[in-house]
Amino acid sequence: MAAPPTPSQAEGLSATDEKRHRFYACELIQEAGILLQLPQVVLATAQSLLHRFYARQSLFDFDAFRAAMGCIFLASKAEEQPRRVKDIVQVFFRMRNRRMGLGLSLLMPSDPRFATWSDWLVMVERQVLIEVGFSIDGTTEHPHKFLLYYIKLLECSDACAQQAWNYVNDSFRLDLCLRYDAHVIACAAISLAARVLQHVLPLGWEELLEVDVPDVISVAR
């Protein structure tokens, strides 16, 4: 059975274009996270929030750039790594200017645009909270912790572990976190990494980790 259309698709945006916009927002979160010196868990939470948000709201009402700002702001608080409004505004302002070829000038608090950007940030953060029902419990359990445990249990090579870690990070650019449990995504990342690197996993490893093979295949596809 086909999945019901998202709010953006219901308003005429193609699934391909929506995926492109979400991908762009996730790239912004990753880049901003590096500039803000945030740990990966914050970025994973921010991207999970983004996908949950767009499951209920349309890109026509909330563009990807501002949604990325709001999600990383909220995620930094949720993961107890808060960043100031000023810092997030400055980082996203610089990122936008660089993409537009406008240089890397700062947005000073005395500039009227600073208040506008700050208002955007707080407004989108509030809207994200509303759409997730003021509960972020479903966005803070990530595949990373399962991956670390499974890698040791299966005695995977360092190369396989690194490749699987990269796949887990990349998985947040898609809405897999809405459709599969975190441990399934971790298993799929290990399976894909092992296949690419020709690393042999123990026989029956799926049963050992209590994961359904069809789900692993679907995620890794």
TrEMBL record:
CDD domains: CYCLIN_CCNL_rpt1, CYCLIN_CCNL_rpt2
Gene3D superfamilies: Cyclin-like (1.10.472.10)
Cyclin-like domain segment(s): 27-130, 145-221
TM region positions: none
This protein's UniProt keywords: Cyclin
Superkingdom per UniProt: Eukaryota
UniProt xrefs under InterPro entries: Cyclin-like_dom, Cyclin-like_sf, Cyclin/Ssn8, Cyclin_N
Annotated family: Belongs to the cyclin family.
Record-given protein name: Cyclin-like domain-containing protein
